[in-house]
Every structure is written in structure tokens, then in C-alpha cells.
Specification:
37% of the residues lie in helices and 10% in strands. The protein is α/β, with parallel strands linked by helices. The protein has a single domain, classed as Glycosidases (TIM Barrel). Strands 1-2-5-6 form a 4-stranded parallel beta sheet.
Length: 238
Amino acid sequence: MLICCLGIFNMAYAQNDTALIQVNLQQEQGAMQPLWAWFGYDEPNYTYMKDGKKLLSEIAALSPVPVYVRTHSLMVTGDGKAALKWGSTNMYTEDAAGNPVYNWTIVDSIFDTYTKRGMKPLAQIGFMPEALSTNPQPYRHYWKPGDKYSDIVTGWAYPPKDYNKWAELVYQWVKHCVDRYGKKEVESWYWEVWNEADGYYWKGTREEFLNCTITPQTPLKERCQPLVLEALTQQAVL
């Protein structure tokens, strides 16, 4: 009897599960807020290529307000060659003595492409440079359609082996951006740590992820980058 009643209920519900929406395009309700002015993609190195610049120019022209752009792999180690589900900037390496070597050339090309079009970065602090990864090998992947998606998860998805070096890297990147683009401009950007740390993209613990978010706050606070500090603090709370 119960099964029968449930079946009748489901049939009745299905028959009435229809909504009619009418839109009067002649009647104005007010200004439409441009909530769609955000754009993102996986492969950062296509940004400054011919077709990448063309597409970004078209997207910027469609919006009456600045478009925020987010791309992955801004801190990944590599030669900067574009590939499917892969990208690199070689932002951080170390010399033979283990001292940090910073290289902003490629990430500058990415952010220059945005700012020259009136766009703004949603700067993603990630992923882990090879020299800092607690599990660096394998690092470069060669994923292609048909492969297991988890194959993309390599050494870039692990926590840093030295949180002080990680924190200093984040600070030096922010400082470089302020020096290059100006404090007012950088304060209008958004910043985030990592991507989907609750999924494939993070192979550490929750505590290690929070450390990645919290440890850069000290140099940012001590050296006057309050808005980036605020963004990191909010993400740690969330």
C-alpha cells in the first residue's frame, strides 16, 4: 500500500513539476548588475599567445566593468610551454646551495596581458613549485583525453617542505606586483590560495593547507600588504 501511494504521489508531482516563465522585454525594471564579469581557465601560458590575447580582448570589450581573470599554475615549475591541463611560470627555483631564485618573467607576461586590456587578476597562489614540494616526483604530467583525470595530480599538489620559504615566496610575489603595477592597482585585485583543496588538487592534510594560508600572513603584515593579508585571513577562516 505504501509503495502504491508513493508511486501515485510521484506521478502527480511529476505532472505538476512545470514552471512557466514569461519575460516582457519591453518593460524595464532597472539597471542590470554585471555579475558575470569573471572568467577563468586552466592553462596560463595561452594567455599571452596570439589567440589568447584575441580572446581576452573580446571578453574585455563585452563588459562595462573590469573583468577579473583567474588561471591556474601561476607558481608551477617548468619551461612555460603550454599544454593541456598544464602550465608553468618557473617563478621559484633554488640554486645549488638551496637559496631561493625568483623569476617573474612569465607571470608578468600573464598579468601584463590582463592589465593592458583593463582586466584584473584573481591571483591564485598555487601550485607548489618543484623545489618546495614535499613529494616533487613525478612533477610534469602529460595528461590527454581518455586518461584518468587523477593523472594530472603530481608533485605540484603537495605541501611545502619549508613553510618559511613558502611564506617568503608569496610575499616577494606580492611585493613585485606592487612595484610593477602600483599599490592602488594591486589593492583592486583579488587573491586566493590554491584551487579546490578539498578535491584532487591538494594532497596534504587540512592542517597543512591552513598553514599554507596562514604562514604568509606574517611577512605580509609586517611588510605592509594589508589587503592581500585580509584575503588570506578570510580564506583561512572559511
